[in-house]
Amino acid sequence: MKLPRRGFLHIAAGASALASLSLPRIAIGQEAYPSRPIHVIVGFTAGAASDVTARILGDSMRPILGQQIIVEDRPGAGSSIAAEYVAHAAKDGYTLFVATLSIITNQIINPNPSFDLTRDLAPVALLASGAVVLVVNPEINVHSVAELIALAKSKPGQVLHACHGHG
User: Fold this and answer.
1) Which of 17, 20, 85, 128 is 20 to 30 A away from residue 8, measured at CA?
2) H or E segment and range at residue 29
3) Looking at the predicted structure, is the pLDDT value of residue 81 above 90?
4) How far apart are CA 93 and CA 131, in angstroms?
5) Are the CB atoms for 103 and 12 separated by under 8 Å?
6) How far apart are CA 70 and CA 95, in angstroms?
7) Is the pTM of this model over 0.70?
8) DSSP string spanning 100-125?
9) Residue 31 CA to chain centroid, in angstroms?
């Protein structure tokens, strides 16, 4: 059964895609997971919301797993650098990725990504959620997205906007 695009986007956006956390089966003489530090890779700079989330996650996981959780920030390209790093890391559950909506945007606008989001990364857990809000100055008397689009079309290059990222 093919997952509808909207369903995939919900999973990818809501679930911080942590790279292929497939726990190995324990064979005789094999160490239990985790037997060494776990690296949590974040695609933004220290202090960004995803970095703070990863550090809180690490602090909570450390006593439960009995292992050090190392948060590494690999900023750039809207988190694609971090995602690519994790996508090409060993699939052993020791390298995790905190994904945000930006990784979906990057997969859409990048014609030749070096990894496949659905093949190379697997969503594991929802770490956080937040609202995306569109607001306008009340003085412009716009009350819907359709009205905002109409205003922008009627005044090319005159309607300014701000957003949290590119894309």
Assistant:
1) 85
2) none
3) yes
4) 30
5) yes
6) 10
7) no
8) -HHHHHHHHH-SS-SS-HHHH--EEE
9) 30
Task: Please tell me the predicted confidence (pLDDT) of residue 163.
Answer: 74
Distance CA 36, CA 142 (A): 55
Cα–Cα dist 64/58, whole Å: 10
The answer to whether 28 and 111 are in contact (CB under 8 A) is no
The sign of the torsion formed by the CA atoms of 152, 155, 156, 161 equals negative
Amino acid letter, residue 6? R
Beta strand 69-73 with 38-42 is parallel
**DSSP per-residue codes, 37-84:** -EEEEESS-TTSHHHHHHHHHHHHHHHHHTS-EEEEE---GGGHHHHH
- Sequence-separated (6 or more) residues with CB below 8 Å from residue 54: 40, 42, 71, 98
Least confident among 26-30, 76-80, 144-148, 158-162: 26-30
Q: Which pLDDT value is given to residue 166?
A: 53
- Find where tokens 């911080």 sit: 16
3-state SS class at 96: strand
CA 19, CA 93: separation in Å to the nearest integer?
Answer: 7
